[in-house]
């Protein structure tokens, strides 16, 4: 069998315009699934997987793992902490109560194999390098396949803008994205949105940089997060005409992103 990469994209339940993507990388030794999406049925195209990798522990990336009974699951050690915490099971119960059809078969399966910085898998003819890249979440990981120039970025990269879920590593995140944009990667698959090339990495880094600059200068003038956001609308950061075509989600997320940058900068003062 020749090495291959297969992508599966699903819409999040209840939102036809918000896709999430998982992948299977097939080498001659291992068939490695990267993220398991929302429910086991999402994983039907990946039958026969021999390893599962999580890019992070958010629900839309890891609730379909029950499709692979007995298959080892690998993730960052913080992903294991988060998925074994009582809040994870409580959140699934809440989501299932709201939408039983979408989440009846979803299960939380924490990674049994964890790592702190980097882990390399020899899939047979393909190397699968997992790199911790905190930012979107503290447990975020990107998956590099050097032979293919491929980076499966999880939610470390999104099109058109990244989601800054939590403060703590935001500036480091932009630096790492810039480093990856110069690392010879030719194909970038974001967790949400259409795949592209290294320009996606550079664009997400530039977006984060603009938010950090705006937040620094706003805080120096004594502005609140809302005042900083009012002076930096999303339309000003994207090519002309793009923002009008986006779901409302991104305008709201942009405002939340600015609040997270402000929280990170204030914590560092
Ligand atoms: Zn996501």
From TrEMBL:
For this protein, the parts annotated as crossing the membrane are none
> Metallo-beta-lactamase domain spans which residues?
19-192
Instruction: Spell out the protein name for this chain.
Output: Glyoxylase-like metal-dependent hydrolase (Beta-lactamase superfamily II)
SUPFAM superfamilies, per database record: Metallo-hydrolase/oxidoreductase
Q: Which domain of life does the UniProt lineage start with? A: Bacteria
The record's listing under InterPro entries reads: Metallo-B-lactamas, NDM-1-like, RibonucZ/Hydroxyglut_hydro
Gene3D superfamilies referenced in this protein's UniProt entry, alphabetically: Ribonuclease Z/Hydroxyacylglutathione hydrolase-like
